[in-house]
Design brief:
Elements lengths: L1 E3 L10 E2 L2 E2 L1 E3 H14 L15 H5 L6 H13 L4 E12 L4 E10 L2 E2 L3 E5 L1
Antiparallel strand pairs: 1-4, 2-3, 5-6, 6-7, 6-8
Length: 120
């Protein structure tokens, strides 16, 4: 599969010499996983059922890390092109209200590098 490339930090489209860049293979699948993990439930106007329920599950007074982990893992594994979740870890920084997850997946194109992602 092939998709438009997104910047890994800002998640904006990557444009080089006035041309949109493309991404394929393992990088495209990892990008798809990241987009799914960063989509807030009811955020996308074309399908309000997509996304993770950050406001009711993650951004609560006493978040349940095991529930959050199960949601994140399910989102990763259910992404098209992901065959297996090889590694997953999460760190919840309660004082700063920041959740960071790291994961590695086996895709239809091969094994990804370890990805670390701060989620909303």
């Amino acid at each position: 599969m092939i998709d438009l490339a997104l910047d890994t930090v800002t998640h904006d489209l990557v444009v080089t010499n006035y041309d949109l860049q493309m991404v394929d293979g393992v990088d495209q699948i990892v990008q798809s996983v990241k987009m799914r993990l960063l989509t807030i439930f009811d955020e996308w106007f074309l399908d309000s059922s997509q996304g993770i329920q950050y406001f009711s599950v993650v951004c609560t007074k006493n978040p349940d890390l095991s529930l959050i982990d199960s949601i994140m893992k399910a989102t990763i594994v259910e992404t098209t092109g992901v065959n297996e979740l090889l590694m997953y870890s999460s760190v919840l920084d309660k004082p700063n209200r920041q959740l960071t997850i790291s994961f590695q997946v086996n895709t239809t194109y091969g094994i990804s590098t370890t990805i670390s992602l701060g989620v909303p």
